[in-house]
Amino acid sequence: MAPSSKLKTPAQINNMDYEEFIDVFGNVIEHCSLCAAAVWRYRPFKDVKYLHEEICKFVDQLPPAGGEGILRSHPDLAGRAASEGLLTKESNQEQRAAGLSDLTQEERKQLAQMNDMYRSKFGFPFVICARKNKKDVILEGLRTRLNNSQEAELQKGLTEVKKICYLRLLDLVEHDGIESRL
Amino acid sequence: MAPSSKLKTPAQINNMDYEEFIDVFGNVIEHCSLCAAAVWRYRPFKDVKYLHEEICKFVDQLPPAGGEGILRSHPDLAGRAASEGLLTKESNQEQRAAGLSDLTQEERKQLAQMNDMYRSKFGFPFVICARKNKKDVILEGLRTRLNNSQEAELQKGLTEVKKICYLRLLDLVEHDGIESRL
Predict the structure, then answer these.
(1) What residue in B sits closest to A39 (Cα-Cα)?
(2) What does the record give as the function of this protein (chains A, B) (predicted)?
């Protein structure tokens, strides 16, 4: 989504000071700048894939409460934050790309009901990589995933978080057609 | 620091929805709202001490990169963020309380030099509970702690983070003279 002229090269990233690094990468995991702060120790980053892998490793090392905390830091799809204009710019773009800003009244109602059921069953919101899915697939995925166990949904949600992170990184860092690995 | 009329009771905290909880407690660990997001699962909180303990347990369960990330999320004392007015309101109050907004030119220079030495030796900034110390003690503490090992300073820094967190919680939650446990 970012214009390619703005993409950072690995050399530019490795020359950033800490504050700049956090300004640029602090929200690749939604509202969890601690993840970028943690991987700062793994510089130099040879490419975007390596940076992504270090972030994923950190997420995987968190205790379960931390994984849940990451999921809780995500907004509901087409939820209150969206309708009140309180989404981060990344979430806003992603939800629009999936067609979630363009739901029928019936779809919006269904989504809200299932979001509530999901959150009350699992203790965190439903998270899916919106840019890799369209609204019909998202609604169907939510319906299906409501049947899973808490443990399975914690893992599934974090897998989606890592995909979201990867796409956000590709919007920020120079790369060579590696999006297809998702 | 917060007027006592604004202090939340445990019952009020346990009745908060998630967004309100994060609005209120998201910065008790500086710039690391993930910590509050993680402990949401441990409601109900019977008192401020219990809430603090759950946050400390979460911090202790983080891998070393996460502990370092927490320290990196703290500003330098009397550093660039302070001089540019970019501190969080909590940090600003704490640094003022320690007399760090009122350094002589010589003290400011010494502190900046030692902050730089500390950060380049350890890979994270010097963190101390400013409200529990005055500027002379802070300068002396920094000088001494520069001699420690990286592992010792990671633990020492996180111990200070937990004290800062406790005092921030006491500014937010009703309590009965338990500040002395620090």
Answers:
(1) B65
(2) Catalyzes the stereoselective decarboxylation of 2-oxo-4-hydroxy-4-carboxy-5-ureidoimidazoline (OHCU) to (S)-allantoin.
